[in-house]
Amino acid sequence: RDAREMGYYAALTQAVGRHLLVGVRYDFYDPDRDHYVRNAGDLVPSDSSYSTWAFMAALVSPWGRLMAEYDVNRNHLGISSTGTPTDLADNAFTLRGEVRF
Fold first, then answer.
1. For 38-69, what is each residue's pLDDT tens digit?
2. Nearest to 11 by CA among 49, 53, 50, 51
């Protein structure tokens, strides 16, 4: 990995009874910690990092599982209609099924 990159994550999961699994995860990634932009001729640091809080629940059985996950994404690379920096609206809901055979 390039020395200018930085990333990490932490996750916790917990079984609740025999058929329910819940979890939470936080991840952070900064692809270029040395990124600068020009503002009125001056170089100023720019935040190009991404972070996500993910919340998950899964119904588990011997034949498979059904998982639901909601990701709250923070992406500082968006620009509002007035031209000011803002978070991009890119939260996501995922429903996934897995079957064992």
1. 555 665 556 667 889 999 999 999 999 999 99
2. 53
Rg (CA), the chain: 19
Q: Which of 25-29, 38-42, 66-70, 89-93 has the lowest mean pLDDT?
A: 38-42
Its pTM stands at 0.70
Q: In this structure, how many other beta carbons lie within 10 angstroms of the beta carbon of residue 33?
A: 14
Q: Which residues pair with 68 in a beta bridge?
A: 57, 95
Residues 98 and 65: beta-carbon distance below 8 Å: yes
The residue with tokens 């809901």 is: 93
Q: Provide the edge-to-edge strand list for the sheet that holds 50-61.
A: 6-16, 20-30, 50-61, 64-75, 92-99
